[in-house]
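Q: Can I borrow your eye for a moment on a structure tokenisation matter? Would you mind producing a protein record, from residues through to fold? Write it directly below this note and I will take it from there.
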Amino acid sequence: MDALDMQLALGRATGLTARQLQHALAMLATAPCAQSAPSAPSAQCAPADSPLPALFRQCRSSLEALGLGAGAIGALLAPDRARIEADRRRVSRECICLVDAAGAQYPPQLAQTAGAPAVLYVKGDAGCLSAPQLAMVGSRSPTLPGQRTARAFASRLSAAGLTITSGLAVGIDAASHAGALDAGGATIAVLGGGIDTIFPREHRALAERIGAQGALVSQYPPGTPPIRANFPRRNRIISGLALGTLVVEAGQRSGSLITARLALEQRRRLFAIPGSIQNPLARGCHALIRSGAVLVESADQILHELKFRSMKQCLKEPASESGMPVVDAFRLDKDYKILLDALGFEPASLDALVQRTGFPSQSVASMLLFLELEDVVGLHSGGRYLRL
């Protein structure tokens, strides 16, 4: 077995964590006389500085003394050669590299967390896993302003030098990845299945962009389907990689709240963006704020809270304090400003705006169309309009 075969074997070791692997190797380093297994696999191809061969040379009693579980011991004593060979072909075909907790490339932020996997599968730049990161999560069915906010925050924070980490899901996740890509920054997508089984399928093109400008990461071997039980474990990696987690929009039972809870357990900073009390997708964020999450209204507040010093210039496009593009208000005449004031920041129907402004319905419809083309307002569900 060479070094890659050993990593692949460990990647299939059920229940093996980063801490267990590091602890076992540390104990072996101080106990050079540990008993070897008589039929230990050859490690002639492993790098001279790799600590893994010593682990594969141990007998069952030694491995048990190191505190390893049955799954890890089985993988070390009797590696499944056929499965390892199949995994090897897959990682080669998909250009996937493996990062184990014994190596220098394993992300230090994640290594500090309980339950971190012993092996990560990475497609893209494995080096960005150790970069300062902010996790961004939220609803899979966000409002249009929520998507815009996530994209703008991600773009601003990425431009400041933070790597944006999320889960490639539809909604806020996708908007966050896109915002980082817009700014030319790095972004990391943590998957709930194997890297060769992108989910959802419509995000394959987005995944390709992320792999080229950041990294796709999974704790699951290639070919693993994205089943429901995998995603809570995936969430632990999202929050564990990052300095903090930002929740943009989340309902009271949103899966994003799992990531938020994990961030608190991992003693990471938690941020939440407030919303309207009429918006059900703001209730999860409001609950987090009541529980101690930092209320943020601008990307710069997050940089300040993290004591993160910007390493890049700000976005070239004029931006407001929130990180959202500034509306060029001087181009709008008095009637347009009256209409925008009447619209406020809550969804409103055409009839409601006619009643609030006193303008003819045809005039309001014409102005709304112009504002929509100018990206100042957007069409919401039920034919209502939203100020962006």
